[in-house]
């Protein structure tokens, strides 16, 4: 064997020193979840700075010829067991005092201590070089290798740079109104105690407006507690932007809210602003809970948190293949829950896990940036069982104690960074909506599976909308693609109305012992609301050439292999404040949707003619581009809706006023093009004006991958100004127009219709019986999708299993009535 010094000299030109901007992967293997703590440690290429576990480093050497690797091993130090931690899914026993993660007073994040060992390894003979060995080598070798080792050790790892463990929900920004806030000289002086709302006489949750000194109650919370919104209404009437919560004022500060900025803020001139109304900040004492304390308390509500996490029972930990936990990277539980469920679906298993060897062999030079490789890595990590092992107990050096429930698990850092890259929300460490992430990920799968099998087809289905003009009785049929059913919550159908009213009465009377009663909603009532005809009061009928009443009925044009149902728990109150409906719904284990199968045009039924509505008119001049009522648009924007959505609402309701526009917005908030630009007749960006050469190749390829020809994709994009989501909607609304055009191979796989006609051109959708069985559901705890916690339950071999980040346990009482997303698969014959 050659002398190690000579070998190092021969590869010296390949050894680099990390520079600012270099991505150093020293915490995780690019192709697996091996880390420095894993058996065999981690090998960091001293040229590309990619990390590899022991099973993949030889492969990298063979493919690249790179020989020098920086080898890192970490050994966990023994430490005293912290009695404040619980290993069975309970909330932290040590009560948090700060709405934060990973900092003093916040929610606990486990911090481990390690002993680290470093050396250089030369492949293929695995020759080792330590820092001591370098001392005897020529200066040029010693200096270059030492600098490279030191650079790798001191560099921030990619995972650290992309994912900061600390998150502080209390970090607030200075209000833009505070420095120049104008205060009225109206003689108002605020007493040091005895505050009450000047409108309703409530004595709790009182906010003082810093402009005029008005004392008014705060917002009503989702559970009926809080106030009666009088402080908010005062802002809407006066525009006075900032208020302080009385009872939270201390010499250190207070809760200050900016209604205009819709957030808790800082006021650097708070002492001066309070003194204007006779309040000496230095003598005040705290008498009410701050908004942060209230948020923490709500996020730990016993009624929801403990039930969903099954915290009242001792759960049996499970280990093995397909039973692997995922580490929470700081508000990443939404991602963990969604991916656990998706890799229960055979399509995703076959696409990514069954082909992992082929995927890895075909991976690009930097596999950390390759979608297929990182999804396959995640899938294999979840299903193989390699990481489904009990996490070592630092206080148990002999390994004799029972497993605690926590697993070693996997930390999906590279995956999260890749799928979130460039996205304004998923690239952050903030909590997100699991439903939105599911659709985001499915969209990424669609874009990355233009050739070969596409696992998202398991969820894809066609929806038929039938609109009947009540005056002419003529109908219009459109089809669109969808991936989930959004089920409305029918609060007026609660079966325990008397209990709810009694609890509300006791709260209004100030009874602090009043129990929190959860509305019991029948699942059948929610399904009925979905299937019942919707009345359209401002429908422009091409048959009668005027606005009239119509009914819209929605049905399934195809039934997918796997059906996702979202319970629409998150809504807006009368004051447009987001809230979560605290409901229990008796979601069934089996579902038969056969009665909701679309039937298409009925015998003898006439269709509405394809005639566009006339342009809007000004009092004396007809214009090609309709004039929009700016005041209505402004009112809608002030409510927080996107500008383009407001413009559409005013346009499509014909300038008929704020109420009609608001109804349009509430009925179209879930549209994929809700916030897309409005394209009006006569505008240069109107339909058909986009030249073919300017069309996005990526958009064309996406539509072609759904089973349409390139000509059809081109026509759809040109008709919608090259906006992908609108083009997809357009193409399903014009299927009859496309029948004469060529269709790509692999069109709709559904059987021929009852009338014997061939299926119209469309996406690759699967079809079958509309009978399903429940196999998974994702639950949410907290007041909104932007906070709280997600867990999922998955049925494996007739046993329900709870996946709560790194904890994987046999479920004793799966809370199927409290879910947010439900996953069904087609029932076997």
From TrEMBL:
Residue ranges of every copy of the UBP-type domain listed in the record: 173-281
UniProtKB keywords: Hydrolase, Metal-binding, Protease, Repeat, Thiol protease, Ubl conjugation pathway, Zinc, Zinc-finger
Positions that bind Zn(2+): 197, 200, 217, 230
Catalytic activity: Thiol-dependent hydrolysis of ester, thioester, amide, peptide and isopeptide bonds formed by the C-terminal Gly of ubiquitin (a 76-residue protein attached to proteins as an intracellular targeting signal)
BP-aspect Gene Ontology terms: protein deubiquitination; proteolysis
Biased composition (Low complexity): 744-753
Residues annotated for substrate binding in this entry: 207, 219-222, 257, 259, 262
Annotated SUPFAM superfamilies: Cysteine proteinases, RING/U-box, UBA-like
Cellular component, GO annotation: cytosol; nucleus
GO molecular function per UniProt: cysteine-type deubiquitinase activity; zinc ion binding
Residues forming the catalytic site: 333 (nucleophile), 789 (proton acceptor)
Annotated Pfam families: UBA, UCH, zf-UBP, zf-UBP_var
Renumbered residue ranges of the record's region Disordered: 73-98, 387-407, 743-767
Domain (UBA): residue spans on this chain: 627-668, 694-734
Residue span(s) of domain USP: 324-827
EC identifiers of the protein: 3.4.19.12
InterPro entries, sorted: Papain-like_cys_pep_sf (IPR038765), Peptidase_C19 (IPR050164), Peptidase_C19_UCH (IPR001394), UBA (IPR015940), UBA-like_sf (IPR009060), Ubiquitinyl_hydrolase (IPR016652), UBP13_Znf-UBP_var (IPR041432), USP (IPR028889)
Family according to the record: Belongs to the peptidase C19 family.
Name by which UniProt lists this protein: Ubiquitin carboxyl-terminal hydrolase
Native source species: Eleginops maclovinus
Lineage, top ranks: Eukaryota, Metazoa, Chordata, Craniata, Vertebrata
